[in-house]
Amino acid sequence: xxxxxxxxxxxxxxxxxxxxxxxxxxxxxxxxxxxxxxxxxxxxxxxxxxxxxxxxxxxxxxxxxxxxxxxxxxxxxxxxxxxxxxxxxxxxxxxxxxxxxxxxxxxxxxxxxxxxxxxxxxxxxxxxxxxxxxxxxxxxxxxxxxxxxxxxxxxxxxxxxxxxxxx
Length: 167
Known about the structure:
Elements (H helix, E strand, L loop, with lengths): L10 H11 L8 H11 L2 H6 E6 L4 E6 L2 H9 L1 H11 L9 E6 L19 H10 L6 H23 L7
Parallel strand pairs: 2-3
Antiparallel strand pairs: 1-2
Helix pairs in contact: 2-5, 6-7
């Protein structure tokens, strides 16, 4: 559909483009590229790096587990472009280049669960202060009491969390 100056554009076109920019929308061209990547790069690379985006100019962004993987794959990018390109179906979009980024988390790994703050109870604080009451230095005694109370609270919280097999 031709773009009209100053006119309205279909919401689907606008939202689809915006979602692809932030990595949230499906990119139909990326499916065959991911399949070709997985079938050609080997297990270690597949676990450490995954294609996440394809620009209109054919440059594919690959999210890597860490900077070492990004550097290693960047050094081998010409070979990777050739391997992935050869594995693509004839009707698939071409890969003109590879861009390697370090991901927030390793590819395919779920985000870490949100951590609950550890707050000692009054009883844990009182017990901790009792434990360190023999320390003469006020500042040191305060730090040790806070650490002991936090340790007791952490122990209490981990005892409340069921083990994976017990769920």
